[in-house]
Design brief:
The protein is mostly beta strands. The chain has two helices and seven strands; from the N terminus they run E-E-H-E-E-E-E-E-H. It has one domain: OB fold (Dihydrolipoamide Acetyltransferase, E2P), CATH 2.40.50.
Length: 92
């Protein structure tokens, strides 16, 4: 897609790579393109005052429609693994 707002799962910090995934674990996001078991969708979330978008896959086989609030579990290889907020909310 070539969108510069897509985030990367790692960033370069001097002579080491620091995982961004740990920093955003638990962040609230919104599905912006449907997520299905057959194909990743997309989420958007706020970071440092900017809206970022990243491809996303659900932790479960349940499809997630655009507009659903999700929680970011981790980002691997540029794909966010997310869980529906209402499911997470029931556990806390």
């Amino acid at each position: 897609m070539g969108d510069p707002s897509y985030c990367h799962s790692h960033r370069w910090t001097g002579d080491q790579t620091e995982s961004v995934s740990d920093e955003i674990q638990g962040e609230l996001a919104v599905v912006t393109r449907d997520i299905t078991p057959a194909a990743p969708g997309e989420i958007s979330y706020q970071r440092a005052g900017r809206e970022l978008r990243v491809r996303a896959q659900a932790l479960t086989a349940k499809p997630l429609a655009a507009g659903v609030e999700v929680v970011i579990d981790r980002i691997e290889n540029g794909i966010a693994f997310v869980e529906e907020w209402s499911v997470v909310e029931q556990r806390i």
